[in-house]
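In response to reviewer comment 3 from the previous cycle, which asked for concrete evidence that the modeling workflow produces usable outputs, we include below a single protein chain processed end to end. The sequence was submitted unchanged, and the resulting structure tokens are shown without manual editing.
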Amino acid sequence: LNHNWGNGNAEDVSLFANAGFGVNEDWELYGWAGYQDREAESTGFYRRSSDSAPSPLGTRSTPRNLTEIYPDGFLPTIVGDVTDISGGGGIRGDLAGWDADFSVVYGSNELDYSVVNTLNASLGPTSPTEFDAGALEYDQVVLNANVTRTFDTLLPGTTTVSFGAEFREEGFEITQGEPASYIQGGYRGIPGVNYDPVIGVNVPVGFDINDPSTFPDPFDENFGVGFAGGSQVFAGFTPQSEVDASRDNIGLYADVEWEPNDQTLLSAAVRYEDYSDFGDTITGKITGRYDFTDTVAIRGAVSTGFRAPSLQQQFFTASSTNFIDGVPFEIGTFPATSAAAIALGAQPLDAEESTSFSAGLVFTPQSNLFITIDAFSIDIEDQIFLSENLGGADVDAVLADAGVTGISRIRFFQNGIETETRGVDIVARYDWDLGSLGELGLSGAFNFSEVEVTEVPVNPVLPDLTFFSRNNRLTFEESAPETKLILSADYAWKDATFNARATRYGEVIDPSNNPDNDFAIEAEWIIDASVDFQVTDNVSLGIGVDNVLDQYPVETPSNQNFNGIFPFSARSPFGFAGRFMYARAGFTF
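The workflow returned the following structure tokens.
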């Protein structure tokens, strides 16, 4: 086996609990806690035996294998151990006529990387084959206070007023891997085995291929060829990659909902936020609904939004092997504020801003039937994107000046694109009460959305070095279906619930910087089904099948499937894993 395709091996353990306790008839204490641990494997590209030598003895200019360790090559594997911890608690009740809720919530996620069945070729034949590559960790604490009250005399009709305050603190850490996972050990190989001996160039004068005593020291930098540093497939996080960043923000918000009569509902909300790293902002939302009759209503909304760059977007640093058009490159992801990124034209990240509009109709011709039709528009300014994998002579010079080694391509997050999204959502549902035969519900949901990139950034330092290419543009515009239709039926009878769902995903495009290599992933129907049984008041059991018909996306064209290694595109909206069967059990107490 020289390549894996599909879902990797994974093991999950999840625990969750929640509880509540009445302090008195007005106040309640509540809380919850969750724990999840997931260990998953993901394999990279096979390193062949011939990858141990440069051309013409082998296939690599920078050898990635050592036949002394893997004579037949190897399939490197990344093992990720993810630990999620969450918990929260609070108290809620009546506070002088207001519904009050005070809470604190904590959550953390830690991803520990290890790389197995691999090596660091630059360490030579004594290289380890397993490495601790480091870890990523994110956590946050949120304190919230909210009060709500409904008034009958504040304005004509009914008025509901809410106020709240929120404090959030976030932290992001990158922990370095063990040194062997990232260092360049300096191994230069064995003449006649790892490279063609050229006397006076890569071997000493007097070299005799039949006399090992004339061989140069394989770690002598004056001879031989350099082997690839770092653990293959995923080099460990370096000391320079280590990050311990944090920030906090304070939010204040107010919401007013006014129902002057049985036909009209209006609401307005405003939120103020102050970030320790991005300053302050005010966003708002106005919504309304008017019922012409008991069966026909209109509704609409307008809102503004603000999203500060995540800590991960600001500080993530790593390198890994990526294949571009079948050629392996060591890709480095750097912060936009790093010396190398700034030299290539990067600007510090800023916040995204958005403006959204929606308008719709609601039809309720009878109590068990409703239909909604909503049109929407979303404009985003200064949207954040991941740049192209930048390379070439100018990039090589910048990386060298910045002291970055072992990297042939660089990328970083940037602001600068503007997008417009226009679309329509249609939802309908009809319910039947069948008496002793149970209850049947039929529903349908249709979405049409079209995304257009209206502005792209220009590199202010190196105009010919493009941050946002055709490939990136089409990823935004064409790699998600413009249409999606979901038809579902659910039937409940006694202690059993049956569900069937058919989803039609519209066509998507798998783009390339070369238009001749674009190809369409055709529209497809996917059918899912499940049944659940309430065995007792506390115990439920269920079974189900996703993708009942075992559908796969259209196959990748032969000139793009890397000799059959990639039979299907990763951009398929319904994946490429085929049928999935499962069983589940639930217990409450």
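The chain has four helices and 24 strands. We consider this sufficient to address the reviewer's concern, and the full set will be provided in the supplementary archive.
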